[in-house]
Design a protein that fits this description.
The complex is a heterodimer of chains A (about 110) and B (about 110). By secondary structure, chain A is mainly beta. Chain A is about 0% helix and about 50% strand. Chain A has no helices and eleven strands. In chain A, the strands form two sheets. In chain A, strands 2, 4, 5, 6, 9, 10 and 11 form a seven-stranded mixed beta sheet that branches. Chain A is globular. Chain B has no helices and eleven strands. Chain B is mainly β and about 110 residues long. The chains are: A mainly beta (about 110), B mainly beta (about 110). The interface of A and B includes residues 44, 55, 94, 98 and 104 of A.
């Protein structure tokens, strides 16, 4: 039973570029959340997708956008990259309903030069 | 504004002894609480959770305690093993379970 898978594992971009990160949820999960984890910090919530729509959004600018596909997989897009966007980007999936833990992938390490 | 706080960045414990990791939260509306373990180069792994209607939940060597009046939760690991060495994050969420709020983590080292 495959868990949450993310691609790519590492990515290097320059300021001003755009990036797309991908996530496949754990089998049986229909909800995908994205988090940004800076060095020495806990994961910070970016947004959550359910039924192909953004259900909730954290305190991140509009440069961060996403998409969920009918097979529940998801993409995170970041435009006009800044040096401060360098971080580990984590995808988490869960089942709908209360008291459901989110299960994380191993993340994509994004470095901005 | 950090709604979930882990005030101890690191903790060292002898193998076989008890490890106690602490977490405080500020939002009284939080309804569901979790602990995750993270090894380097891996994503956080779900460890144990507790609903606000309970004050204790056990799973093998791991027990989570919730004190709602103090807005405090703790994770007890007994007995601690070297393989438990990792960064532990506590997380909380509202009843909707959409957005999880994470602490900054505590790095646990279990000394053989």
């Amino acid at each position: 039973d495959a868990g949450v898978t993310q691609s790519p594992t590492h990515l290097i971009k320059t300021r001003g570029q755009q990036v797309t990160l991908r996530c496949s949820p754990k089998s049986g999960h229909d909800t995908v959340s994205w988090y940004q984890q800076a060095l020495g910090q806990g994961p910070q919530f970016i947004f959550q997708y359910y039924e192909e729509e953004e259900r909730q959004r954290g305190n991140f600018p509009d440069r961060f956008s996403g998409h969920q596909f009918p097979n529940y997989s998801s993409e995170l897009n970041v435009n006009a990259l800044l040096l401060g966007d360098s971080a580990l980007y984590l995808c988490a999936s869960s089942s709908t309903g209360a008291d459901q833990p989110q299960h994380f992938g191993d993340g994509t390490r994004l470095s901005i030069l | 504004d950090q709604q979930v706080k882990q005030n101890s960045p690191s903790l060292s414990v002898q193998e076989g002894r008890i490890s106690i990791l602490n977490c405080d939260y500020t939002n009284s509306m939080f309804d569901y609480f979790l602990w995750y373990k993270k090894y380097p180069a891996e994503g956080p792994t779900f460890l144990i959770s507790i609903s606000s209607i309970k004050d204790k939940n056990e799973d093998g060597r791991f027990t989570v305690f919730l004190n709602k009046s103090a807005k405090h939760l703790s994770l007890h690991i007994v007995p601690s093993q070297p393989g438990d060495s990792a960064v532990y994050f506590c997380a909380s969420t509202l009843q909707t379970g959409n957005q999880f709020y994470f602490g900054t983590g505590t790095s646990l080292t279990v000394i053989p």
